[in-house]
Amino acid sequence: MNPSNRATVFRDRTDAAHQLAAQLQPYRGKKPLVLAIPRGAVPMAKSLAAALEGDFDVVLVRKLRAPFAPEVAIGSVDESGWTYLSPYAATAGADQDYIAAEKQRQLEVIRQRRVQYTPIRPPLNPAGRIVIVVDDGLATGATMVAALHGLRQRHPAKLICAVPVSSPEALAMVRPLADEVLCLQAPAEFHAVGQFYRDFSQVEDDEVIALLQP
């Protein structure tokens, strides 16, 4: 489905996952690896993996928060420590010392989540597989950039970004990083991911841990 300026609102993340699954049917039966960016996308990815007869796991990345505005992403970091910085990081007041400290804070969250989420097994290996990276929406696109970059280094056969909704700017930024991008809508009037869901309840760690159980 091509993104358009006609915005629709999803009932919840389950509705969004079902709509993505309908568009991803060509990969059904090809054992895709569906990876969620925690936490919001985890229920979606679990549903998608079941619909596509694939495997399910998480890809751990974190946004780097702007000083005095933690909801604003000035970049992102992946599990290996690779860092993406947005062009406006400096104008947001983030100097090198702040960025270094924020990176370490977020890497510690990643380490804690790995211990919580997959304590008895390593992450599933994406090498040579069709990999579908899922998020519940892209605002800045920063965490998706880190996820796609990190996964590309691990040599998947095909790397796909799948999201229900995105800002046009974020969509343009991630397109070169994936072999395929599926976005159900990228409306011009984009302010926040939550505006496109009637129910955008927070997903807690306990739910993520339960969904990742074998």
UniProtKB/TrEMBL annotation:
A GO molecular-function term, please?
Answer: glycosyltransferase activity
Which Gene3D superfamilies did the record assign?
A: 3.40.50.2020, PRTase-like
Q: Which UniProt keywords apply?
A: Glycosyltransferase, Transferase
The Phosphoribosyltransferase domain extends over 16-197
Q: Key word Transmembrane present in the record?
A: no
Q: Indicate whether Glycosyltransferase appears among the record's keywords.
A: yes
CDD domains annotated for this entry?
PRTases_typeI
- Give the superkingdom in one word: Bacteria
InterPro entries registered for this protein in UniProt = PRTase-like, PRTase_dom
Provide the protein name.
Putative phosphoribosyltransferase
